[in-house]
Specification:
Order of helices and strands: EHEEEEEHEHEHHH
Strand order of the largest sheet: 7-1-8
Helix content: 40-55%
Distance between the termini: 20 Å
Strand content: 15-25%
Length: 196
């Protein structure tokens, strides 16, 4: 639960990959954003796997991830050999060309609203220069509308809802020897009453 931005697309040309990485790295340096380069050989086969939440093996992706704000998730720009933006986990779980590239996401709910706007502006710049078919699904609707007031209302509404649920959880008294399933069942009943 939270306001997220989902994005997918393909580089206009695979020869733009290094230019894309270099430019986003330069922007990150100028903005004092923490970033990491992901520089695997995209022409080697995918031998990656996930065990206990850790990726091992070779994952044929290249790109950059950015930490724009400590209260937002990282912004990932990882590409396969065909220039498709790839979600790290789905790329790891799939073998070459088995599934269509899906969208990548970043949750911005807990960061200041200006961070959400900054990310949208960065994505618009990337669309204009590197990924002309970039598709963005902005749960805050700022991508589509540019309406900061609407974005603020969505942030505020979700924060109120999360605070209300957190308050209900705090008020629930866990009974001695109550199982997690029993706690969840009681919580679901409280939430149903809240919606009625």
């Amino acid at each position: 639960m939270g306001i997220s931005i989902h994005y997918k697309g393909k580089l206009n040309n695979t020869t733009l990959l290094q230019s894309f990485i270099d430019e986003v790295e330069d922007i990150s340096k100028d903005m004092n954003w923490d970033y990491n380069l992901f520089e695997n050989d995209i022409n080697l086969p995918n031998t990656s796997k996930i065990e206990n939440g850790i990726i091992s093996g070779h994952l044929p992706l290249r790109g950059i991830s950015i930490n724009i704000h400590p209260k937002a998730e990282r912004l990932y720009f990882y590409f396969d050999k065909n220039g498709n933006l790839r979600n790290l986990i789905s790329a790891c779980l799939s073998k070459e060309d088995e599934i269509k590239p899906n969208s990548t996401s970043i949750k911005t709910q807990f960061a200041p609203i200006e961070i959400h706007i900054t990310i949208i502006n960065l994505l618009k710049y990337i669309k204009s220069k590197f990924i002309s078919n970039l598709e963005v699904n902005d749960e805050g609707e700022f991508w589509e509308t540019g309406d900061k007031l609407l974005l603020r209302q969505k942030f505020d509404y979700l924060n109120r809802a999360l605070n209300k649920v957190a308050g209900l959880i705090d008020e629930m008294q866990i009974r001695y020897n109550e199982t997690p399933d029993e706690i969840l069942a009681r919580l679901m009943e409280v939430l149903k009453r809240l919606n009625n």
